[in-house]
Design brief:
mainly beta; SH3 type barrels; 4 domains; eight-stranded antiparallel beta sheet; six-stranded mixed beta sheet; elongated; SLAP domain-containing protein
Length: 363
């Protein structure tokens, strides 16, 4: 499997197979990204190998510039191409020749016993030379407010990095807060924090208790039968997502429409019914929170730590076993995603490839 990425998005892929004791002919070379507008990042070159006939060998993963040199730099010129592309090396054919370890005769690579049942995936990464557009620096995070009644958590607060925002103080039955809002700061790491404290005093007057213990900064109760305002983004996963109609305080499945898999949607309202949270993606069209994931459209760069392999996860929060990121390498991300039932924070570094925020360093 030969895969090429541009800015962590698929650019070209091709699967080449060969029968045991047969041969792999020269392949037509694909047109790679123009060197005037994109640069090959050799530190990200990756190779993973699975041995179907000897599964106890597991999956081997290699990445980095040394691997790139071993595969390509040392073997350029040793094999031609069925058709060449001017101004670029023969990446595809050189890769087949190098990773097979086989002899080359009459312009063909022979498949001997050592390669029986073996699948190798070779990946190249290009990065655009142009500077990225100004990223959307909005983040969504929970805010913790210290109070004399303990920590008060306000869920799903939205703000732009580097800005101060106003956060509504949660109401408590039988108590009156000494302020209605607190000032919070949106930090570079995506957290939102406040240094202000709130004091609640017992309500001894005739005022009726307020049952709206809302932890949503927009002021409506997300756990009641009334929708709350919500400004955010959600994405679907590998399967089409059912839509629901909200009528008379109940959700009914829409049998006519679904959201496509791997699609993105803007949300403007939220509601919780019988313990299930729903987001509104269109007029009276709602999705269950378990069928989607929340994300923030933000670009940036993260660095892997000094460990042999930093593993990746799919959008379903499942570990990818046959691929990882090399130590001390930089990776562009295009969104911050909150995956799984616990909404663990991830950075998306490629299509359906996410790295856990706790495993990398955010620049």
């Amino acid at each position: 499997n030969f895969k090429v990425y541009l800015d962590n998005k698929p650019y070209f892929s091709k699967k080449v197979t060969g029968e045991l004791h047969g041969s792999i002919p020269l392949q037509d070379e694909p047109k790679m990204p123009d060197s005037k507008v994109a640069t090959l990042n050799k530190n990200k070159t990756a190779m993973s190998t699975i041995n179907e006939y000897v599964p106890q060998l597991g999956t081997s993963i290699q990445t980095g510039s040394i691997l790139h040199s071993k595969i390509f730099n040392q073997n350029f010129g040793k094999i031609g191409a069925a058709s060449t592309v001017d101004g670029q090396p023969n990446f595809l054919n050189t890769g087949i020749y190098s990773i097979s370890g086989e002899s080359l005769e009459d312009g063909k690579v022979f498949v001997n016993d050592d390669n029986a049942g073996r699948t190798t995936t070779l990946e190249l990464y290009y990065e655009s030379n142009q500077a990225d557009e100004t990223p959307d620096t909005s983040v969504i995070a929970d805010v913790t407010i210290e109070s004399n009644l303990g920590k008060q958590v306000v869920k799903d607060v939205t703000g732009k990095i580097g800005k101060d925002i106003q956060v509504t103080v949660p109401k408590k039955d039988g108590y009156v807060a000494d302020k209605k809002t607190v000032t919070a700061h949106v930090n570079q790491d995506g957290t939102i924090t406040t240094e202000e404290k709130v004091t609640y005093t017992k309500n001894t007057g005739d005022e009726k208790p307020n049952n709206n213990q809302n932890n949503n900064q927009n002021g409506n109760d997300a756990s009641s039968n009334l929708p709350s305002h919500y400004n955010g983004l959600v994405g679907t996963m590998k399967k089409p997502v059912d839509l629901y109609d909200f009528n008379n305080g109940q959700m009914t499945k829409n049998k006519q429409r679904q959201l496509a898999d791997h699609s993105d949607w803007k949300v403007d309202q939220i509601i919780t019914l019988k313990g299930i949270k729903y987001y509104r993606v269109a007029t009276n069209e709602w999705v269950k929170d378990s069928d989607i994931y929340r994300y923030v459209a933000q670009k940036g760069i993260v660095d892997t730590k000094d460990v042999e392999v930093t593993y990746l996860s799919t959008v379903e929060d499942k570990l990818i076993n046959n691929r990882g990121l090399a130590a001390n390498t930089a990776w562009k991300y295009d969104r911050i995603a909150y995956l799984g039932s616990n909404e663990t924070k991830y950075y998306r570094v490629a299509t359906d490839e996410f790295v856990k925020a706790s495993d990398v360093i955010n620049n």
